[in-house]
Amino acid sequence: MQTKRVPFTFNRGGYFYFSRRVPSDLVEHYRYPRIVQALNTQNVSVARSRASMMASQLESYWAQIRLAHADLPGRHLLKQKQIHAISAGIPSSLSTSVSLTEALAVYLERKGANKGRAFRIAAERACGYLVDVAGLKDLHEYTRQDALSFRDFLVNRGLVGSSVTRVLNSVSAVYNFACSELALDLKNPFQGVYHDRSAGVTKRLPISDLEIKKIQEACRSQNDDCRWLIALISDTGLRLSEAAGLMLADIKLSDPVPHLVVKPNLLRPLKTSGSERVVPLVGASLWAAERLCKANTDPSSPAFPRYTNSGRVQANSASAALNKWLKAYVSKGCTIHSFRHSMRDRLRAVECPTEMVDQIGGWSRGSVGQGYGIGYPLNAMHRYLSKIVI
Fold first, then answer.
1. Structure pTM?
2. Which class is 90-201 in CATH?
3. Chain centroid, CA 308 distance in Å
4. pLDDT digits (tens, 9 = 90+) for 126-158
5. Chain segment 105-126, per-residue pLDDT in tens
6. For the domain 209-387, what is the CATH superfamily, name and number?
7. SS3 (DSSP) at 200
8. Which of 67, 130, 72, 70 is nearest to 101 (CA)?
9. How many CA atoms lie within 13 A of 213 on its CB side?
10. What sign does the dihedral 48-51-57-58 (CA atoms) show?
11. Per-domain residue ranges of the chain
């Protein structure tokens, strides 16, 4: 049953959910006749803002679908560019402004076409925060005062400086992209908003060699899939999602140099295009890879089904479980991601070339020249990684 004080919602267990019936003339476009989505809040005013934004998005989208399929009078007289805009449901460049929801739709359709799910979620979340603070408006209606209130809202939520920067940048990117794509002559009020970027940010510490040794010994002793995942990361420096989302076919043990192939798949995308790489297997990582291949011989299977049983990598679940176990072995402030910081230091200690370090870890390139050629061969990377085995 929908709540009267917050239109298009119902309340279950104290939390609000958006609920809207699909119009009968559009039901053929949907698998279900009703749209239900969690608003992730117990606050009435926040629920009202988010439900209003979702309802507005749907109304706009439904209007676009109807227009695209309508027998529009004079349609044959329209220029091709205008016909495309109507069919795609994109506002005409002749408009003086568009709503935030329309700007977000353009941004996700064009800029986010080949990006992962996280890209869409981040943009939608950032714009949702803005609606909570300043309401749903056309782009030209947002003011500098709205931007400053938005910043204060993020700070008061307890977000650290880097997170505030990320959210502000996301909203600013949506604004700028829509203005550029739709030829809108508007000044972005969200650009250059000052805030303390270092507030609450703590430096991530590396895990010491002694701690890594104890962790790897404990992994060999317990010898289960969670410990295989930790061991695999410990001597490769892979990101958690990269390792948890591996397919067994990505583990090449029979090659002259055993290695992993890190590439995008249906379980997870990669953080950047430079993250796609091959990484030699040595030490505890080689041990873990051998255990994985003995436990399951089907190359089409995910290496870690525990964290991929929903069809996508459950990185948050994996992080929580592994960090809880690691606490007994590492210094305060260290997490599973600290292995990447350690890998950087361990490779420095054996005087590994910086360009090779970036290639092993999938870090972004430092110069244009690093993009030339195909990079270091496997045996060269294997030689340096062998030197860091504890």
1. 0.67
2. mainly alpha
3. 16
4. 998 999 899 888 999 999 999 999 999 999 988
5. 889 888 887 777 778 888 989 9
6. Intergrase catalytic core (1.10.443.10)
7. coil
8. 130
9. 7
10. negative
11. 1-45+57-74, 90-201, 209-387
